[in-house]
Each structure stands twice: as C-alpha cells, then as structure tokens.
Amino acid sequence: MIDIGPKRPVARRAMAQGSIQLRKVTIAAVREKRIAKGDPIETARIAATMAVKRTAELIPYCHPIPLEAANIDFDVGDKGIEVRCEVRARYKTGAEMEALVGVTTALLVIWDMVKYLEKDAGGQYPTTAIGDVRVVAKEKGTVGGERRDGI
After folding, report:
1. Whole-angstrom Cα distance, residue 23 to residue 98?
2. Annotated catalytic, 132?
3. 21, 25, 88, 151 - which has most CB atoms within 10 Å?
C-alpha cells in the first residue's frame, strides 16, 4: 500500500452513483413491494452499508478508513433504479472507493432480488443492465461548505 503515514487527517466526502435498467413489470413490482425475496431497496441499503465498511477487505491497495457516515439513497424511475452512496470520513485518504463499493453492491443486490422477473424465455437478461457508475462528488477539507481540517 501507499505510505500515508506523513499525511494529516482531513475531512473527506465522496458520492458515487449508478443505475440498473429494469423492465416496467419489474419496476411496478418493486414499487408495489411484490418482490418474492423481499424489499430490494431496503435490502440493498443494508448490503451497501455493510460493503462500505468492508471496502479495504475487497480492494487490495485500499486503506481501511474510519467512517463517520454512509448514506445510500434510491430513485425508482420508469426505466430503472438509480443509487447514490455518500460516504464521509476524517482521515488521511479519500472515501471514493467506499462510495463506489456501496453503489455497486446495492445495484448487484437489486439485480439478484429481481432477476426472476428480468429473465426472458431462454433464461437471459436482454434488457437488464448496470451502468453509469461514477464518482459524482469528492471533497477534501471542506465538506458541505464548512472547513473541517485536522481532527
């Protein structure tokens, strides 16, 4: 890993987002809470929170960071579900990997929970897709307009 020993802890914030494209029948089932495995939104929120905490175990060169907050939000639209994950920490390295792991985990959990509705007659997923995964915000030192250097 990169030596971050000489660096000072600084307030950090990262937000990532991504989406999963789903069939209209699947979106309706999610909205009406008719998914056989349970509520994919709440399950994905819990899984994403757990994943954010374990990012350093999944990404070999990622430092474990002391998290202050992880917020996972969902927008269920007409063509799919958008997920946003915001992570905050006060440490020597950024939190964007944690935010990305949170988003991708949430998206994978949603896919797993709705896949029976997404399959075609041949058992394939012709329209289901995860995409647009990216970091949409990264802040260091100033979080929410407030300067928060040091500990």
Report:
1. 29
2. no
3. 88
CB 19 within 8 A of CB 98: no
* Residue ranges of domains in the chain, CATH in brackets: 10-140 (3.30.70.640)
6-50: per-residue pLDDT in tens?
899 999 999 999 999 999 999 999 999 999 999 999 999 999 999
Torsion of CA 115, 116, 117, 120, to 10 degrees: 90
26/148 Cα distance (integer angstroms):
43
H-helix or E-strand spanning residue 70:
strand 67-76
SS3 for 106-121, per residue?
Answer: HHHHHHHHHHHHHCCC
Residue of 3, 39, 75, 112 with catalytic role: 112
